Amino acid sequence: MSVKAIKPDSKIVLVIGGSGFVGRHLVEKLCSLGYTVRVFDLRTTFEHEKVTFYNGDLCNKQDLLKCMDNVDTVFHCATPSPLSNNKKVFLRVNVDGTKNVLDACFEKGVKNLILTSSASVVYSGSNIEHGDETLPYAKRPLDCYTQTKIQQEKLVLSANSESLKTIALRPHGIFGPRDPHMLPTTARLAAAGKTKFIIGKGINKVDFTYIDNVVYAHVLAAQQLQQKPEIAGNAYNITNNEPILFWEFMSRLLKGLGYAAPKYHLPYYFIYFLAFLVQIFVFIVSPFKTIRPTLTTMTVALAGTHHYYSCEKAASEFNYSPVVKLEDAIERTLQSVPELHNKHAKKVK
After folding, report:
1. CB 3.0–4.6 Å: which of 114, 120, 141, 318 could bond 224 by disulfide?
2. 97: domain CATH number?
3. Catalytic annotation on 210?
4. Which range marks the domain in which residue 164 is found?
5. Catalytic residue among 35, 123, 145, 320
6. Global confidence as pTM
7. Residue 220 to residues 160, 209, 249, 256, 303: CA-CA distances in angstroms?
8. Does residue 338 sit within a domain?
C-alpha cells in the first residue's frame, strides 16, 4: 500500500474480528506501522510474529476484558457475513456483541473505538447518488444485516464521550485480495453459467472500495481522532471515490477471470418481485430447512439501482483520499486469485 503521511506508532491496539477479511488486512498494516497489535476473534486463521491472539466470544464480556489491559484504541471489525441471512446471529454479534465491546472499553479505560460500519445503513433499495452523511438511516432495511448494522452504529456513536471517543466508518462494496465473498461468489456463479444476465438497463452507478483504502481510512481516522477530538461521534463514508457502472465493474471481473460478460437484460421489477417470492418461500420453510438464496431483494436492488456516496466529509475532517485507484485495485485483485480463473478461458469469446 502506498500510504500518505501515516506515522509509525507504538501504542497498543486491539482488532476485534482481526481474523476476518478487513481485520486481517488492518492487522498487517498496523504491524508494519509499529503498533503493538492484539487480535480478538472466535478463531485464529493466520499467524504473525508481532501479533498476540486472543480467542473468544463477543457475547462473553469476560473474554473481551482479558485482552483489553492497557489498550489505547479498539478497531471493531467483527460481523457475520452479509450473505448468511441469519437474523439471530446478526443480532447476537452486531448488537449484543457490540454492547459488550462498549462495556468492556469503558471498564478498561480504552480511549478510542473505530467501528467498521457500512454505507448500507442508509440504503433501503432506492437510488442514492452522491449520498452524504446527512441521509437518515434506512426506515425499511432490505435485510437483517443492514437492520443490525444500523443498531450497531447507533450504539457506538451514542456511546461517544470524554472518556471513550468513537467513530463509525462506512465503506461500501469492499473487495481485494483474500476477499471471501465477491470474487468467489462471482466465479462460482460464472462457472455455473449464471452470469449471462443484466438486471435492469445496466446504467446504474455504484461505489466499490479497495481493501487498502478501507484499511488506510481506519488507521488515519484513529490517528486523527487523537489530534482532532471534534471528529468523534461522527460517521464517515469511505469509498474509492470513483463511481462505476455496476455491470461494467462486474463485466471487468468476469472477463478478468476468463468468463464472458453478461449481455442479456432482465426487467428489474420482475426480478425484484421474483426475489420477493423466493424470500417468502425461504421464510415458510425456515422451521424445517435452512436455505440461503443467492437471489434476494437486497442483491437485486444492489445490482439495479444507483448507490454511490460522497467522501467529502472524510476528506475535509481527517484528510482521507484513496491511496489505490480503481483500475489498479481491480487488476491487483484479479492477480491475487489465480485459483478462481476459468481453466477454459481460451474458449471464451
Report:
1. 318
2. 3.40.50.720
3. no
4. 12-180+209-240+310-324
5. 145
6. 0.92
7. 18, 16, 28, 32, 31
8. no
